[in-house]
Amino acid sequence: MTDFDAIIIGAGHNGLVCAGYLAKAGKKVLVLESRAVPGGCAATHEFAPGFNVSSCAQWLYQLSPNVVSDLKLTQHGLAYAAEGLATIALDEAGDHLRLQGDSASGGGVSSEDQKAYGLFRKKMRKYAKLMRTAYGTRPPKLVEHDLHDKITFAKLGLGMKLLGKDDMSDLMRLILINIFDVMKETFQSPKLQAALALDAVIGTPMGPRSPNTVFTYLHRFFGEVLGFEGATQVKGGMGMLGAALSNAATDLGAVVRCDTSVASIDKTFDRVTGVTLSSGEHITAKLVVSSADPKTTFKSLLGYQHMEAGLVRRIEQIRFKSGTVKVHLALSGLPTFAGLDQSALGQRLVIAPSLNALESAFNPLKYDESSARPVMDISIPSINDPSLAPNGQHVLSAIVQYAPLNPKGGWEALRAPFMAAVIAELTRYAPDIASLITAEELLTPADLAATFGMTGGNWHHGELTMDQVLMTRPATGISQYQTGIDGLYLCGAGSHPGGGLMGLAGKNSAQEIIRQGELA
Amino acid sequence: MNQPTRATMLLETPFHSRVAERCEINDWGNWMGYTTPNAFFDVELEYFSIRSTTGVFDLSPMNKYRIQGPDAEAYLNRMATRNISKIGINRVGYTVWCNDAGMVMDDGTIFRLGESDYRLCSYQRAIDWLLWCAMGFDVTITDETEDLAALAVQGPTSCTSLTEMGLTDLNTLKPFGMRTYDFEGEKLMVSRTGFTGDLGYEVWVSPEKAETLWDQLFDAGKEYLIKPFGSYALDIARIETGFIQAGVDFVPAEEMVRPGRARSPFELGLSWLVDLEKPLFNGRTALLKEKANGSRYRFAILNVDGNKPAEHSFIMKGDRQIGTVTSAAWCPTAKSNIAFAQLEMPEGDIGEEYVAEIYYQRELHWTRLLAPCTVIDGPIFNPKRRRKTPAISH
User: How many CB contacts within 8 angstroms connect chain A with chain B?
Assistant: First the structure.
């Protein structure tokens, strides 16, 4: 008799989603979280007195609506401060480009580009619909001829067919090239090219000329077919999504224990039987489901010596690079952006002047150096949600590319100069911003890795590249949430379909566990 | 030493000067990047040195890896299919190792040199796999292939030849035992092991002492008709005694290109090397499944009528092809025509009779021969002197 049916390691959003679905199916579930609050990357923290900010992810753009409704997240506190936000690509001279839905305006975008933008999005939507089929269930295996997998293949095959001959062959062509070439052949406006290319590279260690960036663009675009027409801002910061997921899971009967870190996954003979906490406490369960990334799960928690060597090799070969930094600024007032009225500051602002500027920003990362002129995705959430900052004051949150996990000379030497580079870049668009800063915080890839337990600081728990998705995510043979080790499952972003606040890895994993009858 | 020769671009072993001197017919082959003799003077006579007197084979190209550290035993138990804990200090064990799919990557011998000190001898280069396997274990892996020269000294007078050379009381060494002697100011290691199925030893020294070892051994063995032998003679001896060879009787699993061509230990007749009671080893999960669901193939030793080696033959049951031959030889001592075959399950029970479809050519004329054959129970050559301790002296 075990203490629980399932122990879920990590109360990140996928861990909580998995817990919610398992609890909903009547299973006795325990979620263990080393941090003080549940949510993982869906977190809010106070980085200066009175100034709160989403610690990691700042926009919601692909959370599965099924997860929201199945787990009744709205009833458990999930609310949006703003939805369908426009993306404004900043221009130094004040001629900003505004992207909203299928329309592109300003920024010197020609009428041809405006038309091309609509057509481009139409095509991307067709491709993203195909991804919905692939993302909504476990990835099919190629060799075992399982009925469920055959149905998935049939759906994908039919989906491909329904694209029509031209779009199908274009997908095959596009998916393996890079966003730089796609932008160049589709649009003329450098600003439009760069604003879209930023979506392809954000959160990755890739530049616009890197292969796989069309896939990462589609991965991000995927939210459009889930009903997100632009970025959404969660009320109270992203931590409220974490709290809602935790409340939902708890309400369904799961137990969520925070401040409880797992020291090891216990294995006796050839089956995982539970976990040992850092306190020394043992907890047993029929299944252990890890939402930690695959390397943390297998290397740190299970131990390579307790696995067959081929799996060790496959785990060790997963790439986890990151080039992403998080910057938080406390501002005594709203900065003035040339050519933008204050009402526009609550939208999603991006600094990505041109494709070459993006590529130049990326180049140093290859040599473990940081961008001299970083590019970024900016949110001033206190405009749509004044509760985040003291009255009349504001917080600015930015996802900044590119800086390495381990820079030459170490982060202590780089921290101040990199922050200065970020502020210098912001100053080009908002000349008064430096004078308004009352507090600042920079979370390096190393900080993100340490705080959120993400190997390499990679928020996808493993880079999203064609060799690390679908039936090879996180590695061949363990792509269907099972690990090949009895009693151990995966449910995190390292599994199909990857990261972003989507919840599908957690949902698919729970459904797979139930389908396999593991807890029947 | 160990420099590629200009003509062949192959490495030379530490015995090369001596081997080349004795290689009368200049028939050289490529063994894992080393130039080694296929034959020295006459394959049959070389073979009979193994079975009747003393035969010497240069096995320096064998890959040798040192595994040391507190986790050495646990490491090997995870890597290999058999229970390494049962190999005592100064003992040697034969084993195979598998990939995660339970398919054999290679076979080899493990020498236990100390409490946490082992040497693995393998046919394939294995350093890459050994290092992958080391992740998570407190062990150091060292490639000693070029640091050790080795001779196989095999045959009924091998013990006497080596004793004559100064390895006192060698006859008390048990099969799969090993022992160290002082030799020319260095250590010489001798193990009672071999690939011929006869009484025999393998002698290990530093490359610097290789030529001295060769000279002293051939001096000491002169009265006992010591002769060098090449890989063709070895092939006959190993087939006669039922030893399979990597790359010949199975495709090393991680070199396989076409799906399904690798073989599990069960399919190679090596289930005695698989200890499923061990909680973990590479391939265990897959082998448990195979044990439950059945294997695809069975390894069989066939006694084939006639004297035409059934090389590359199809094995037929009526009109149906049920298997193929991987190794075959006319075995002179056993006076039998032996073939190793991979048969489709459930074929291959002891005593079953099939037909080997043998093709051979005489003066550009191809002939098809349908030779009846029978599955036999174990190797046809397995003399008592192979195991007898004290070993026979002359």
Answer: 50
Enter the ipTM: 0.89
A235: its two tokens: 């009320």
Q: What is the pLDDT of residues B178-214, one digit of tens each?
A: 999 999 999 999 999 999 999 999 999 999 999 999 9
Q: Which residues of chain B have pLDDT under 50?
A: 1
Are A313 and B285 an interchain contact pair (Cβ–Cβ within 8 Å)?
no
How far is Cα A431 from Cα A434, in angstroms, rounded to an integer? 7
Do you find a cis peptide bond into B265, omega within 30 degrees of 0?
A: no
Q: A308, B132: Cβ pair inside 8 Å?
A: no
Q: Can you give the pLDDT at residue B1?
A: 47
Superfamily for domain range B296-377: Aminomethyltransferase beta-barrel domains (2.40.30.110)
Amino acid at A237: G
Rounded to the nearest 5°, which phi and psi values hold at B331?
-105, 110
Residue spans of the domains in chain B: they are: 16-60+148-229, 296-377
* Closest-approach residue (CA) in chain A for B100: A310
Collapsing DSSP to helix, strand or coil, A233 comes out as: strand
CATH class of B16-60+148-229: alpha beta
- Which among A269, A270, A316 has the least Cβ separation from residue B135? A316
CB B306 within 8 A of CB B371: yes
pLDDT per residue as tens digits for the range A242-284: 999 999 999 999 999 999 999 999 998 889 999 999 999 999 9
Q: pLDDT tens-digit profile of A206-231?
A: 999 999 999 999 999 999 999 998 99
Measured distance CA(B62)–CA(B123) in Å, rounded: 6
- In a mutational test of the A interface, the residue from B131, B132, B275 whose CB has the highest number of chain A CBs within 10 Å is B132
d(CA A156, CA B343): 40
